[in-house]
Amino acid sequence: MQRILAVIFFLVVFLQHQSQAQCNSTNCVEPACKCMNTSPPGAQLVFLAFDGAITVTNYSNYTFLLNNIINPNGCPSGMTFFVYHEYNDYTLTHSLYFKRNEISTHSMSHSTPSSDWAYKSVSEWTDEIGGIQEALAKFANIPKAEIWGARAPFLQSSGDDTFTAMKNLGMYYDCSFPTTENTNPPIWPYTLDQGFQHECTIPPCPKDKYPGIWTVPMMAV
Ligand SMILES: *[C@@H]1O[C@H](CO)[C@@H](O)[C@H](O)[C@H]1NC(C)=O
Ligand SMILES: *[C@@H]1O[C@H](CO)[C@@H](O)[C@H](O)[C@H]1NC(C)=O
Ligand SMILES: *[C@@H]1O[C@H](CO)[C@@H](O)[C@H](O)[C@H]1NC(C)=O
User: Fold this and answer.
1) pLDDT, tens digit, 9 for 90 and up, residues 45-90
2) Which of 4, 5, 56, 58 has most ligand 2 atoms within 8 Å of its beta carbon, as the pocket-test mutant?
3) Which of 7, 39, 172, 210 is disulfide-compatible with 148, CB 3.0–4.6 A?
4) Alpha-carbon distance 115 to 155, whole Å?
């Protein structure tokens, strides 16, 4: 069974303002750093993201979306696939990459029970995220440096241990932390230079600072 999470941000045009006491334009300069902010920088950002194995059964559904969703400016759309290893078809994964989709990590094992993921160590997370990154690089022939996103299995991270592994692996962003409090407008993606800033819906959430690593808060629809 594949889980589908479409992450949608409806964003209206607003002047950006800096409201965080501990994060401001002095200590956080774009594009390397971005404060958590509920006033979006004047755009609409929609992520179409799918979790799990890319299989023959589903492939035509993905290409159908790819061929039929066009951005308002006429440019073709892309999707993000958070891939795990079991049943994943690496040839089809390469095809989706070749068609300009983003291929990201969702762990090697995706093991159950889901609650176990809250207690995994840095080295276990390094094996899980780094393992699927290696597998995708090797078997789907995707440059390792382009596999830079992570989503925790069942959206259950272990907070700092997950982010420390991501940092060690050079990952660029996480997409595992939903928001239910900040939905109108939703939070724009931000970096963890000043730590995790929005409400923690699935604890544990990271407590340390991770300069340059983004989190993409999401609303499941
Ligand atoms: C930015 O934050 C730092 C640390 O909290 C503070 O010392 C500084 O005065 C702030 N700067 C502005 C422009 O608000
Ligand atoms: C992918 O296949 C699974 C199992 O057949 C199905 O439950 C799921 O809805 C499919 N996903 C899409 C996007 O069609
Ligand atoms: C997925 O593709 C299959 C085979 O083409 C089709 O029968 C099914 O309706 C599609 N599902 C969705 C959700 O588009």
Assistant:
1) 888 999 999 999 999 999 999 999 998 889 889 999 999 999 999 9
2) 58
3) 172
4) 10
